[in-house]
Give the backbone structure.
Amino acid sequence: MNDTAPIPPSAGEPRDRHERPSGYRSAAYSQASIARLALSGQACELADAARDLVPTTSDGHAADGEFVRDAARLVETAHRLLEFAVVYERIKGTGWERIGVALDGVSRQAAHERYATAAKDFQLRACTPGCDLSGPARY
């Protein structure tokens, strides 16, 4: 394939003008697709964590602190979900100002300071074959 020929979307290039290319011609999925799948997986994990707190039938068998531990896990998972949402928005081209507005009006700079590292870490990890994207970066 010559370098001036268009690259099909299935080769890791953006499917629309809001999606950034992955930079790898052989990628099976674009970075936006990988980020969206990670976001979906994290949302599923959050739903599962919340569902664990719903039944009341085993309350008498719960250990002391079990509900606090489960609620803390839920909050931690929600924070990771928010990070994945920011990562996905950044990869599809959303600016820090719009992300700040979506975060209840925080400044563009505050949004960047809070989430830029997560976005960079995700993009580095997305380019690493076999890397688990479901949790925090482990280096």
Notes: Residues 87 and 117 are 10 Å apart (CA to CA).
